[in-house]
Design brief:
The complex is a heterodimer of chains A (273) and B (337). Chain A is mainly α and 273 residues long. Helices cover 72% and strands 0% of the residues of chain A. Chain B has an eight-stranded mixed β-sheet with strand order 6-7-8-3-9-10-12-11, sandwiched between helices. Chain B has a four-stranded antiparallel β-sheet with strand order 2-1-4-5. Classes of the chains: A mainly alpha (273), B alpha/beta (337). Chain B: It is found in: Cell inner membrane.
Chain lengths: 273, 337
Amino acid sequence: MKIRANLLIGGFLLATVVIAGTLAPWLAHTDPVMDADLLYAEEPPGAAFWFGTDAQGRDIYSRVLYGARISLTVGIISQLINTVIGVCLGVSAGYWGGWWDDFVSGLTNMMLAIPSLIFALAIMAILNPGLTSLLIALGLTNWSFTCRLARASTLSLKSQGYVQAAKVLGYSDVRIMLTQLLPNMLGPIIVIGTLGMGGAVLAEAALSFLGLGIRPPFPSWGSMLSDARDQITTAPWISIFPGLAIFVTVLGLNLLGDGLRDILDPQSRSRRA
Amino acid sequence: MTDTSNDPILKVENLVVHFPVGRGLLGGSRRFVHAVDGIDLELKRGECLGLVGESGCGKSTLALSILGLQAPTRGRVIVDGHEVGTAGRDRKNRARITQMVFQDPYSSLNPRQTVRKTLETPLRLHGITARSEIDGRIGDMLARVGLRPEAAERYPHEFSGGQRQRIGIARALILEPKIVVLDEPVSALDVSIRAQIINLLLELKETLGLSYIMISHDLGVVEHMSDRVAVMYLGRIVESGPWNTIFTQPGHPYTRALIAAIPDPFKRSSGTKITGEIPNPLSPPTGCGFHPRCPEARDICRTPPAPALKNRGGEHHVRCRRVDEIAMTDGLATAVG
């Protein structure tokens, strides 16, 4: 099988970010929070500070590495929450129909009508800023696309003979959903999930940029960008490197999502076999 | 214990299934589609009953009711002496008695499950958990439907249409049911494969003591397989009887037209052709449901009520007011011709 370029590049970019995040304590030169030294404030990139230093004299390279942890944690966990909510609601609504379907569809349309970032902002404003609140805010606001996809897939799959056969064979509804419907829609769900992860990374950055995400001084790419606003003309490296990190992560996730779409297509699967 | 072997295995009593269409916005009156409109049916043990009719005549709804997947509006379905319940908790009980073979062998198998998984899950679900017994029954069933034991480890896309239908049959029989509903079991298959599958089904019926309800619009297949035939039109049975009676002396104009439509290489097409489409079941015609398309229709056919089933001797029933007249003119024509 030909390995797709997008899968390869996406995987490579994402692997880089994952390795950077997990190995941050060993790769980083300084502590991302404690090691501020105003004597070295706003140093340009060089041999001592690979990515330069910020206004407080903290090593940007180290902070970008630790920032990967926040971004990946938020991206993966919040998107997992979204996917679970979306799939549960979508599959059950499509399968059972009736008032439950009306309710879920109404809720989904409502969620789609509210810009999810604004909704997340509102949740963050109620909860205290922090990692847990971020996960809740982003995990509860972005499931509508998954839900719609799962519902639509269920509607088209449930008339298939094998779903009918499972009913005739005495499978319970939940078993039909888990063994007959879910495995046959997993491909697109994974693709949407991966692409949504990129969105969650961006949303985390946006919330932290607005000061409602990860509280300074803990390094999040979004809050680092926010801090760098005043120096954007005098010390552009302070904003360039966290921005670049966001770009690489989101690009990697999107390419990976595209690549997964190609190989999870059941048609290409059967051609390979 | 009484001997029940002469009782029919399946009895359908005055079955009516209505579907509501278009919810009135302010609770306005709902309209109903009469998908199945008063059907009485019996299936004897070891018999194959052919159910014939155009699409939209209610065959599939009737089948779903027999399988317990469609709740009847009125009437009941009695399988082996027990009324079929439609509640979810009855699903497992029903599964051991009635099963189904589906029309399309491509969409009827889960593409993500091996054949073993497809056959094993129902067994486990019904309390058979011993590895050796599961393996034994799967191997036995694959052999019965003419597949090699290695087939168990493969995925559906690795099989041809005919082989897939064999897997579908194996799945329907793995729980050792008594009644199997065959929904157009060969119409999606290549003509060259059809005979194989038909013969397999007939053989399994004998060896396993099954009773079949075969839904089909292909009268050639019905003629080959059925002991009795019931012809459906617009949610009702318009004619029923032993297959040779139906094929040699059809009573209802609809049946006659269906039989005339069977292609015969040795004869030029003759007899009545029916034109037009099945009427909208939301507003069925008055009187006899078939009158708008019937070449023999007279004024009497258009006046309500709908005609009743007439017994024409033996087990031959026809739902037509003019059946005797039509048979008579038919006889005259043969005598003159």
